[in-house]
Amino acid sequence: MVIRIVYDGPPEAGKTTSLRALSASLARPMATPAETDGRTLYFDWVEYKGGLFEGNQILCQIVTVPGQTVLAHRRHNLLETADVVVFVSDSAPGAVPTTAAYLKTMQETLDALPGPRVGVILQANKRDRANAVDLSTLRDTAPGIAVLESVATTGQGVREAFVFAVRLALDRVRELLRDRALRLGPPDVQSSAELLAQLTRNESPEQSVVASALQEVLAEVAAKPAAPPVIATPESDAPWPPDASVPAGMIWPPIDGRIALHEASATAFTPRVLPDGDWIGEVPGWRFHSPRQASYTNAEVGRRGLVEWARLHAGGQRWLSSPRVVVLAASGEGTWRLWQIVKNEESLRDVLTRELHAGSAQDLLRRMLDAGRVLLAATDSLGFVPCRLPLRIDTIGESRGVPLYVGFLPDPFLLRPPQPFQPEQRPSLLRRELSALASTALRVFPRESFPPLQTVLRESDPPAVVGAIRDVLRDAGLSEAYDLSATEAV
Amino acid sequence: MSTEKQYEEMIAKIEADMSGFIAASVVDLESGMTLTAKSLRSDFDLAVASAYNSELVKQKLKIMKSLGLKTHLEDILLTLGDQIHLIKIFPGGHTFLYLAAERANTNLAIVRNSVNKNLAAVI
After folding, report:
1. Does the global pTM surpass 0.90?
2. How far is residue A134 CA from its own chain's centroid?
C-alpha cells in the first residue's frame, strides 16, 4: 500500500525543515534532487515503511513542493499526486495573507481531482515566534481544516502532524477501495529519481526555461558573500542601530525582547535624525526610536535609563501596544544609546485614512465618530500609565474597541507625571485631533456627498464626540448639511 | 494529543524504572504508525512490531464488539518464552503503548506498575 503525503505551503514556511525533522525522527534519509541556497527546486523526498492497512504494510512517499511562485507548475503537478496534503504555514502575522493565497490555489488544484476528497491538515509552523498569530486566526484562514502546531526547527509537532496525515490518507484509500477505484499493482513512481524524471518529462520548454533562470539567480545570490552585520561601521555620524547580539542585561524584556529584536533587526537600516535631534529607524513591521539625549558614555548610566523605561513599559503594559523592546546598544566610539523598538500598529489616523478613496463620505463620518469614541476612552485609560503621554490621533490606536498607546514613550529622564484629563478638557482635545484629520480627509469627498450626520449616528456615540464632530464639520464649511435639532434628538 | 517529546520522556522514565527493558513505542491505533519508538536491540524492528500489534488490538476490539461487551480494553499481555509484551491502550482508545521486556529480568507486576505510573504524565 503506497500513499503519497505532499507537504505544501508558501515559500520558507518550513516544508523542507519539517521533512528534515521527520526524516530524523523516522530515521530515514531525505533526498533532494536539486536545491540552491536552501531553496527547493523540485521536491524533497523521504520514504518510510510503517503501519498497516487492512493487513498490508504502508509505504509512505513523503514529498515537499517548491514554494516559489515561478515553480507553481511543479507544485501543481505534485499536488495532483497527493493522497493527503500537509499544508505548512508560517505563524507570523504578516504571513497570513500569503497562507490564505496558497491555501486557495492548493484547494483549487485538489478540488479538480477526481475521486474521493484529498484530506488537508494545516501544520501551523514557527509557533515559537514571539508574535505568532492566534490559532483561531489560522483556523479562520483555513475553515474546515485541522490545525496542528509545530516548531519544525526543533521537530516539535512534526511527527504528530505526519501520523495525523497518514490517517487522513488511509481514509481516502478506504473510500477508493469502497468505490473499487483503488489502483492495484506497483506505483508509477517508486523512487525520488523516478519522480524527478516524471516531473521533468511533464514540463513544457517554457516552464523549464523559467525554472532554470530561477536556479541561476538563486545560485548567484548564494555565491555572493554574506551581507555585513547590521552594526557595521556607520557611514555618517549616525549611531549604530541595535541588534540582537547586545549583552545580557541590556535588553528588556529579557527573552521575548531578544527574539523580537532579532526579528526587527533582520533588515538593516541606517538611523536618520529628526529636526528635534531624535533618531528614528523604520524597517518592515517595526519602528526604532532613540531620544536625542539618550546617549551615554557610561553604560551604567544608560542602564539606569533602561531600568526606568522597563518599569514604565511594565507598569503601562495594559495600555501600550505590544511587542515593545527597550535596548541599550553600543552606538559607536565607545558610547551607548537607548532605543525603544515598537511593532507597527495602526494609529487612529491610519484607520481613518485607510482606503479612504475606496469608501464614501458616510464611511468617513462613521470612522470619525468611532475614532472620537476611542480618543475619549483614551482620556480615561491613559491616565493610568505612570507618565504623561501625548494623546494624538497618531499615537492612539485600538484593539477590540479598547484604546492603546501605539507611539513611543518619552525619554526616561524627562518623564512628566501623569495628568488626569478633566471633563472640561475633553471637547477641546476631540476638536483639535479630529480637526487635524479633517483638514485633509474631508476634502477627499465633494461637499454634496456628505449625508446628514444623524443618518450615521448610533445610540452609543457619546454626545461629546458628536458635538466635536459637528464643530469640525462646521469649521470645514459643511454645517449647512446638518439638521442640528435632529442630531441633538439622537 | 501529547507530543513526541512527551512520549519520549515517558518511555525514558519507564526504561529507567524497570529492569529488562527491550523496546517500547507509542502507536497510532488507526494507522499502526509509531508516534515515537525506542529499542535497545538493533534486531528488534519496532516499526513492524508496532504496526502488527495495532492489528492485534483492532481484532480484539472487533471480538469485544461481536460479543456485545459493554466495557473497554485496558491492556493486552503476551507472554513469550523469554519476553513479556505489554500493550497498554491509552484513554480514548486511539493510541497505545507497546512494551517488550526480558522475562528473566522483570515480571508482569513491575512492568504494569511502571507503565501505569508514567502513563499519567501524558494523559
Report:
1. no
2. 11
Q: Which of B2, B4, B25, B46 would best serve as a mutation to test chain A binding (most A beta carbons within 10 A)?
A: B4
Instruction: Please give the Cα distance from A44 to A136 (Å, whole number).
Output: 30
Query: Tens digit of pLDDT for each residue in B51-67?
Result: 999 999 999 999 998 99
Find out whether A58 and A240 touch, Cβ atoms under 8 Å. no
Q: Is A153 on the interface with B (CB under 8 A)?
A: no
β-pair partners for A31: A45
Distance from CA of B97 to the nearest CA of A (A): 14
Residue labelled with grid coordinates 483561531: A136
What are the distances in angstroms from CA A470 to CA A110, A365, A383, B5, B67?
55, 10, 27, 62, 80
Q: Report whether A31 contacts A23 (CB < 8 A).
A: no
**pLDDT averaged over consecutive 10-residue blocks of chain A (490 residues)?**
93 92 90 69 88 87 85 87 94 92 92 88 92 89 86 92 88 82 77 83 66 54 43 56 72 73 80 87 91 81 80 80 88 83 89 78 86 86 78 87 87 73 81 79 79 84 87 76 45
The grid coordinates listed for B69 are 461487551
ipTM of the complex: 0.75
Note which residues in 13-42 of chain A have CB less than 8 A from chain B: 25
Cβ(B50)–Cβ(B37) under 8 Å?
yes
Q: How many CB atoms lie within 10 A of CB A167?
A: 19
Q: What gap in Å lies between CA A198 and CA A223, rounded to an integer?
A: 30
Quick one: closest CA in A to B5, which residue?
A156
Identify the H or E element spanning A486.
Answer: helix A484-489
